[in-house]
Design brief:
The chain is mainly alpha-helical and about 170 residues long. It has one domain. The protein is built from six helices and no strands. α1 crosses α6 and α5 crosses α6. It starts with a helix and ends in an 8-residue tail after the last helix. The relative contact order is 0.16. The model has no long low-confidence stretch (mean pLDDT about 95).
Length: about 170
């Protein structure tokens, strides 16, 4: 185990999920028709499955951008397929987080710490671990550095007018 190598690896593989997770915020500000992924459907508890903020357009653009830009940054450390899986994991994790928040009675945009900060990265690491062996240190580092980075970037997006809340 080499912590320097592990940290270098983590600092590269976090790019696809970070980009994939941030692009839907930008897409939400574009003059596009936005379609909720859940189509407005209600779950068994009478609440929306995901809510209006989780859109088909955000998911597709986020996955594409995370894959392409993340791969360009992390090449040759990861493959194109791994960049795609990391991006897909980020957006799937975000959907799972939204699903859990709706079951808790939280509205879209309401704070749920640490779920909001870790759902996307946890799923990204899960999908990547299905493609290559990851040690616990790599996963722990990815999750640990994600919390402050996620909080800082969300605050910056809020200050730039891209988000309605600073978290």
């Amino acid at each position: 185990m080499n912590l320097g190598n592990d940290l270098s690896f983590v600092l590269l593989v976090i790019w696809p999920p970070y980009i994939a997770n941030s692009v839907p915020v930008i897409v939400s500000r574009l003059p596009l028709k936005r379609r909720p992924i859940d189509g407005g459907a209600l779950f068994l508890d009478g609440r929306r499955v995901f809510g209006d903020n989780k859109t088909v357009e955000g998911f597709l653009f986020g996955c594409a951008a995370g894959t392409l830009v993340g791969y360009a940054i992390a090449f040759p450390v990861i493959t194109f397929l791994e960049a795609f899986m990391l991006s897909l994991g980020a957006l799937t994790g975000d959907l799972v987080g939204a699903f859990i928040k709706r079951r808790m009675g939280l509205e879209p945009g309401e704070r749920a710490v640490p779920l909001d900060q870790l759902d996307f990265m946890a799923f990204s690491m899960l999908l990547l671990s299905m493609m290559r062996e990851l040690n616990c240190i790599v996963i722990a580092m990815a999750l640990a550095i994600t919390v402050p980075i996620h909080m800082a970037t969300n605050y910056a997006a809020y200050k730039l007018g891209l988000k309605n809340v600073p978290y």
